[in-house]
Write a structure and sequence with these properties.
The complex is a heterodimer of chains A (about 120) and B (about 150). Chain A is an alpha/beta fold and about 120 residues long. Helix content of chain A is about 40%, strand content about 30%. The longest helix of chain A has 15 residues, at about 55-70. Classes of the chains: A alpha/beta (about 120), B alpha+beta (about 150).
């Protein structure tokens, strides 16, 4: 399955909806979107990965790159993910300590609201 | 022992094909369903690393992947022709405690090997000036799945 990307803003939070496979072939499109959003002043990103079928280290690199960029503007990049097969790669690489990972968009929005 | 060999040019689009082939053969070899995701990800990591390395050093050379079942194990070997060294191997085997500080946005080769090491039941990495060979294996049914 190819990669489908969409995004919308709610208050100060930009929610990025990702569907499909994030790998060495498709990850550049996600990278371009994240860079574009940051360049347009969106510094608080929430990436919804609930419909992601596959994620490899190239995809992780794109997310890490996005996190670096938003942090340069005191922003945040957090994730929504409950799929064990996706979470496993975050655990193996120790990135669960780096990203805020939530069980739902609502849970992330609630946490984001508390931090404002 | 049955072996399937696949060679592909160093294009990112072909990595998905390699993943699909590896998963199909792993299933046929009798690898447990719960482990197939790990096979898919580990083979994808090895092939992605090889593609990135070839694109840097030898874009015209093909990458080779061998898949075999041998005495109750499913074994995958990914061989590339790009020069590699011990440094990359060592970096891959390190626990990455500071991903934001250490990792570039694009080439995640060492990271990929660390992921493979976390996924495969057994893994051996053979770096050399002539290319890298990554061999990984998982338990499978002793005689594969019965033919239908």
């Amino acid at each position: 399955m190819d990669l489908k990307l969409d995004h919308h803003s709610e208050d100060r939070l930009t929610i990025v909806e990702v569907e499909g496979e994030i790998d060495v072939y498709t990850a550049p499109r996600l990278r371009e979107l994240l860079i574009d959003l940051v360049n347009k002043g969106n510094f608080h990103l929430l990436v919804n990965m609930e419909k992601v079928d596959f994620l490899d280290s190239t995809g992780l690199g794109v997310l890490v790159g996005g996190l670096k960029r938003v942090r340069a503007h005191d922003g945040s990049l957090e994730l929504v993910c409950t799929q064990e097969r996706i979470l496993k790669i975050f655990r193996i690489t120790g990135l669960t300590k780096v990203f805020g990972i939530y069980a739902s968009v609502d849970e992330a929005k609630e946490a984001h609201g508390r931090d404002k | 022992m049955a072996t399937v060999e696949l060679t592909f040019s160093a294009l990112p689009a072909h990595v998905r094909t390699a993943r699909l082939v590896a998963t199909a053969i792993a299933r046929r070899t009798g690898v447990e369903e719960s482990v197939l995701d790990e096979v898919r990800l580990a083979v994808g990591e090895a092939c992605s690393r090889a593609v990135e390395a070839h694109r840097l050093h030898c874009p015209g050379e093909p990458i080779r992947i061998e898949l075999s079942d041998d005495l109750g194990r499913f074994e995958v070997t990914v061989t590339d022709s790009a020069p590699s060294d011990e440094l990359e191997h060592d970096r891959g085997m390190l626990r990455i405690d500071d991903p934001l500080g250490q990792l570039p946005d694009t080439l995640m080769s060492g990271f990929g090997i660390a992921v493979i090491a976390g996924l495969a039941d057994e893994v051996q990495v053979y770096p050399s000036p002539k290319g890298m060979r990554i061999r990984m294996s998982w338990p499978a049914a002793p005689n594969g799945l019965p033919r239908i």
